[in-house]
Amino acid sequence: MARMIPAEFPPVKPGDTGALGEQMVYEALRRMPEEWIVIHNCWRHVLKESPWRENAEHISYEADFIVLIPGCGILVMEVKNWSRARVHNGRWERWDSAKGRFCPVKHGSPLNQAYLAAGNLRTELMKRFSWGRYEASDMEFRSLAVLLGKAENYADLEAVREDEYAVEQLRKAPGYRYYRRDEIYDRLYLCGADALGEGLQAHIESLFCFGNDNSVEEMEEVRRYLLQNLVLRQDAATANRIVELAATPLAALLPMLEESPGGFHIEGCAGSGKSCMLCEEAARLARRAKEKRSGQRYLVLCYNLNLAEYLRTNKALKAAGVCRYDTYSPLVLDNFHTVVNRICTWEGLSPAGADGHFAPETLQALAERVKSNPRYAVDAVLVDEAQDFSADWWPVVQAMLRPGGKLYLFSDSGQRLYAQAGQLPELPVRLKLRHNLRNTQAIAVFGAAALPAKRPETEFLPIIGPEVEIMAASDSPAERAASVRAAIEKLRNEGFAMNDIVALTPWRKNTSLKEDLLADVVDFPADGETRDKADKRLKNCASGKATRILGETVKAFKGMESPAVILTDISAPRDAEKSGFTSAEFYVACTRARYRLIIIPTSSGAQYVRELV
């Protein structure tokens, strides 16, 4: 049996035909000779130096399978589990049962995908092992596209094999110009689930032209290099699937909870799926209103500005047509201050002061006007991070509800960061979520240890990842900035892209993230940043082409998450009654990281942090 990495295929979400196809090929490759090394889901993010460019360029590519075969070479495989496919006018198309016709393939030809990944891998290994052309020629690189399904479903592809004009057109497409005309279809394997045995092995071996002298030891050296940043990515992919499977029952609860008069209150630890449930419920309500043409309207509220922007990118909410509050739409989403300031402007009342606080008389007058004006009426209000809302805000929120309207609260008392936060409205149904679905076990346990009140009922999913890393302590902002830069470079070498990394600090002023050393790699908010500039900065840093990582305060990033978090300027937390950094804020900061957490403390915070490990 071949050596499989990972040793077992990760959990498959029901209905995910792509993953089911990869699982079939994974089990077939497991039966290959024992000297073969099979790596599944190899995502690469590497530095590619270009002699004609002044600056180096990062490239990303992914391979469904990389197979290391001693005596032959390296094979890159792309797997497609399509019901039917064809090549039409040199363009790949697959059958769309919903539309009842062939549609262009989003990522283009699977042959081309495998070919380009193999070329990028060859370039990367040549650089890593300092191979010249002669040494590289001793290590053959081949690519293969495997299409699963019944043979008759690929009759159109088989016909192309005999069509000289069609093959010639395909050969002219990007990526195929180096193939001989007669070998294009050697790189394509059409098969059903029953043909993934000896036939696949024979086809793979036939791709390699020469008997190469690369040894088991050389392949082992390549494996060790690839695994330097592969294990973390495989753990991350497995974690995503575990989370999807664990979160599925949460969405099933929502229709049952709807029967509760007045609404419901869902409590849960960081990463327990509260925001996901809110988005699913808001989208479901909006879809139903649209289908019934009932004219019902729903409002989603949260505390901070960045979280509002983050929630608007949720797929379910975007599909439901979510808009900002200043538009009359069935589903609107904004933070509390934006909504109230907007209404104050319309009603001629004083908005919040520079410190963000509303005068008590303003809120009282606002509640009365909102209740008497049908323009502001909604059928349900869904509040995320409800524990941060002040007690005197709730009359305004409840005044927006039409008779019979419902209030949905999502909260975590362990993440209460603001002194003004008060008692939440009592609702007839309360549900507690006890599983952390976001963090690796190492991060979840570390973060929970920071809470003053322990939570023995909190459970963690079996998501394995690296331990929390604590870098050298320093009281110098410049030295901590140098550590942040080193941490970014380390994460890049581990395979993280710039938009995978976030740097957080408790402080807006006197922070290491404002040091000149980080100006070209960290995008930290300028003083007096406007909403439009904040939204643009968040979008730029979330883009796959981002050149700088997002820098934020812990409070501004609350409710959001990132694959990797660098936490800097950490001092020993104070009591919640005193001003300054609290243990609740440290808990929030740690649990923003899904897979990787690096902490850069001050000297006062070093001992505190190490006691939690």
Q: What does it look like?
A:
This protein has 613 residues and is α/β, with parallel strands linked by helices. Helices cover 36% and strands 22% of the residues. A 6-stranded mixed beta sheet has the order 1-2-3-4-8-9. A 6-stranded parallel beta sheet has the order 12-11-13-14-10-15. A 6-stranded parallel beta sheet has the order 18-23-22-19-21-20, with helices on both faces. Strand 2 and strand 3 form a beta hairpin. Helix 8 crosses helix 9 (274-292), helix 12 (336-347) packs across helix 13 and helix 15 packs antiparallel against helix 18 (583-590). It is globular and about 85 Å long. The chain starts with a strand and ends with a helix. Residues 45-58, 162-166, 173-182 and 229-234 have low confidence and may be disordered.
Distance between the termini: 39 Å
Helical amount among residues, as a percent range?
25-40%
Total of helices: 19
Question: Strand sequence of the main sheet, in spatial order?
Answer: 1-2-3-4-8-9
Shape descriptor reads globular
Number of strands: 23
State which percent range the strand residues make up. 15-25%
Describe the structure in brief:
This protein is α/β, with parallel strands linked by helices.
List the helices and strands and how they pair.
Elements: E1 3-5, H1 17-30, E2 37-48, E3 57-69, E4 73-80, E5 85-88, E6 91-96, E7 101-104, H2 110-129, H3 133-137, E8 140-148, H4 155-162, H5 164-171, E9 188-191, H6 198-206, H7 216-227, H8 230-257, E10 263-268, H9 274-292, E11 298-302, H10 305-311, H11 315-319, E12 331-335, H12 336-347, H13 360-372, E13 378-383, H14 394-399, E14 401-411, E15 430-433, E16 435-436, H15 441-448, E17 459-460, E18 469-470, H16 477-493, E19 501-505, E20 522-523, H17 531-542, E21 549-553, E22 562-570, H18 583-590, E23 593-601, H19 603-612
Parallel strand pairs: 1-2, 4-8, 8-9, 10-14, 10-15, 11-12, 11-13, 13-14, 16-17, 18-23, 19-21, 19-22, 20-21, 22-23
Antiparallel strand pairs: 2-3, 3-4, 5-6, 6-7
Helix pairs in contact: 8-9, 12-13, 15-18
